[in-house]
Write a sequence for this structure.
């Protein structure tokens, strides 16, 4: 009976949400460009846009999971995302493809998105058409002893046993996986003649490693002393107690090619695209999100298989990152325009598939461990940039999630307690940036629910999707309406701005309505300059800077350059601590924002940092002594955001004239004191670092 009651309760919720969506007339109408994607509610123009994250995956994979009960729980929003392959978590390919496919057939208007590790895979998963040279290895060692073609544990003497490790990985309980290959007559690595093995132990005194032979679909083979090579795989994880170390793909454009002349990027794109093809395992899915798809490698790996660490950088060009872009391009070519391609984009090390991917996931916003939302400006810059540089249809989203380290290898991280205002602020940031929301950090479920839904995502107890309707315009940054502390000296750029700029080895000149900054040394790793003497008035300062940047040599024109805007380290006594925020810059003007909430001096110097030495352009620039408070007005409501560590009062009579507004009516187990359903007056004050979702006073809580 309890199960039946839960299902009936959830069915009511689903029916209510569906009726609200239909009544609002907000279902996307196909226009012929994207037959599949145009039908998705989550790509519609009404907000909030929300879907379920990997809770749907875990629930489907449970032994004895009932599809109907699962469907009732996870059909209440606008879609689901999760794993349906075993590339990272064992067992996800057993039931999930069927559950997710049935879900899509029953709810064609809802998103079904594959969650897929873009960096690496469990070698126990389908090896497919990859060959040994398609994986990344660390610098290895020469095999000094004869190795027989025998199964079982084998001792191998090597030139440098320090290259191999036991008790490593996320839980400190894994041993290296090792590739063995032949050295050709010139001493070069030949991964076409190879074997995979598991490290059992390392005897550093004897210079011996013991390995389990013929692993991961390979057979033991004989290797001659001095004519063979052993190297540890570059790995991550394991991402679960039952999972395995995951082998990094070698995306570098210098990756060894298989006998068909294909690189790892070629093979991987084709293998994945085939799964989405008609009749494929993922044919019903709307696209893929690449988890942790990096632009750079943190440790020095051997990307060109010469036995030496190179990190994928050759001739000053990051061929690993370039190969990731080529991988995304090939996958886009195979999948076409009517499938979503997204990837993590919340860190400066993540992929740069601008113009190829539809958008990014921020796994934790602004960052996974930033529960104070200190990187407010960086988080907004990243989403705002992708909103104008992604491929149509744009699909950026926030995975609401925070973790913190525990220091315990058996439990490396935990979910911290986070106050309600921070949750609301993150959800407000999503609608300010045209982003959707899913979540790993779920609220307490109400009675009858098996998985909770944030009040702000469906109007609290009303359970109404997209209840705010269409936006009346872009988000409004109230700081920009405060006086420019530079007095217009940098807007538009002119001689006054030139006089404030300085940087070693740089030339500054007015050019096409901006200041062009050119490095004397074309091989410099970065351009760094200061805008000096910005007047301040109080602890708050918002800087708006329009930036452009020429492409770096050897990279696609569409690949933006990493940039930072911050307060420079004082050259004298430390008064205002240096802080900086990430942004992107490419050949088109983009206005970045930097909000500093702890200014302690009368003036500050701003510091601009761009990767590489190609020219950059700056201007206009304005500075405002105000918090970066934001408001966005919608057809049926208003959303407010206060990222300041101090309270902020919003003048609703000015910001939303003629509107009568009230709070949403929240569920009992979230924050009903804030989401009380009560009307608000002509002003409303938000506490430090808080957000608020308001609806029209006449909005009904019942359909």
């Amino acid at each position: 009976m309890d199960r039946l009651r839960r299902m009936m309760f959830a069915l009511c919720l689903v029916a209510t949400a569906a009726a609200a969506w239909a009544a609002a007339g907000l279902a996307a109408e196909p226009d012929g460009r994207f037959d599949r994607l145009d039908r998705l509610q989550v790509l519609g123009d009404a907000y909030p846009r929300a879907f379920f994250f990997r809770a749907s995956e875990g629930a489907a994979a449970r032994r004895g999971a009932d599809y109907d009960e699962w469907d009732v729980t996870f059909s209440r929003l606008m879609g689901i995302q999760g794993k349906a392959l075993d590339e990272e978590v064992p067992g996800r390919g057993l039931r999930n493809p069927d559950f997710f496919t049935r879900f899509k057939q029953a709810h064609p208007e809802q998103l079904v998105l594959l969650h897929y590790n873009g960096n690496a895979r469990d070698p126990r998963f389908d090896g497919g058409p990859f060959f040994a040279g398609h994986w990344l290895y660390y610098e290895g060692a020469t095999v000094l002893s004869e190795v027989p073609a025998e199964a079982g544990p084998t001792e191998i003497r090597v030139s440098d046993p320090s290259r191999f490790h036991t008790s490593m990985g996320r839980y400190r309980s894994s041993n290296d996986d090792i590739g063995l290959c032949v050295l050709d007559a010139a001493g070069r690595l030949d991964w076409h003649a190879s074997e995979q093995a598991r490290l059992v132990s390392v005897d550093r005194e004897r210079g011996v490693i013991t390995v389990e032979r013929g692993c991961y679909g390979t057979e033991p083979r004989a290797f001659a002393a001095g004519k063979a090579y052993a190297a540890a795989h570059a790995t991550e994880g394991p991402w679960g107690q039952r999972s395995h170390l995951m082998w990094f793909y070698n995306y570098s454009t210098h990756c060894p090619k298989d006998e068909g002349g294909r690189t790892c990027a070629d093979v991987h794109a084709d293998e994945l695209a085939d799964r989405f093809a008609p009749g494929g395992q993922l044919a019903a899915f709307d696209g893929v999100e690449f988890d942790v798809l990096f632009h750079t490698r943190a440790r020095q790996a051997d990307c060109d298989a010469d036995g030496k660490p190179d990190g994928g950088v050759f001739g000053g060009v990051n061929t690993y990152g370039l190969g990731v872009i080529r991988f995304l391009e090939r996958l886009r070519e195979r999948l076409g325009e009517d499938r979503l391609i997204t990837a993590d984009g919340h860190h400066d090390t993540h992929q740069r598939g601008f113009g190829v991917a539809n958008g990014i996931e921020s796994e934790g916003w602004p960052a996974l461990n930033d529960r104070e939302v200190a990187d407010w400006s960086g988080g907004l810059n990243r989403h705002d940039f992708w909103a104008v540089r992604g491929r149509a249809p744009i699909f950026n989203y926030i995975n609401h999630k925070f973790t913190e380290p525990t220091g315990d290898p058996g439990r490396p991280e935990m979910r911290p307690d986070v106050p309600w205002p921070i949750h609301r602020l993150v959800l407000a940031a999503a609608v300010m940036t045209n982003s959707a929301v899913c979540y790993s950090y779920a609220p307490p479920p109400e009675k009858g629910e098996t998985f909770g839904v944030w009040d702000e995502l469906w109007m609290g107890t009303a359970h109404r999707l997209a209840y705010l309707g269409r936006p009346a315009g872009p988000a409004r940054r109230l700081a920009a309406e405060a006086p420019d502390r530079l007095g217009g000296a940098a807007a538009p750029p002119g001689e006054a701005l030139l006089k404030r700029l300085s940087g070693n080895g740089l030339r500054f000149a007015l050019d096409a309505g901006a200041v062009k900054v050119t490095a004397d040394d074309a091989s410099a790793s970065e351009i760094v300059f200061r805008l000096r003497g910005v007047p301040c008035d109080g602890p708050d300062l918002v800087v708006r800077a329009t930036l452009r940047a020429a492409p770096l040599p050897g990279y696609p024109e569409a690949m933006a350059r990493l940039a930072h805007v911050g307060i420079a380290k004082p050259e004298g006594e430390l008064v205002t601590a240096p802080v900086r925020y990430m942004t992107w810059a490419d050949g088109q003007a983009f206005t970045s924002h930097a909000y500093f909430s702890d200014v302690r001096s009368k003036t500050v110097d701003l510091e601009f940092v761009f990767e590489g030495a190609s020219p950059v352009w700056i201007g206009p620039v304005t500075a405002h002594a105000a918090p970066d408070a934001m408001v966005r007005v919608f057809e049926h409501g208003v959303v407010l955001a206060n990222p300041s560590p101090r309270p902020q009062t919003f003048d609703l009579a000015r910001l939303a004239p003629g509107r009568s507004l009230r709070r949403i009516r929240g569920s009992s187990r979230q924050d009903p004191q804030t989401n009380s359903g009560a009307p608000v007056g002509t002003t409303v004050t938000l506490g430090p670092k808080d957000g608020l979702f308001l609806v029209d006073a006449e909005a009904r809580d019942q359909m």
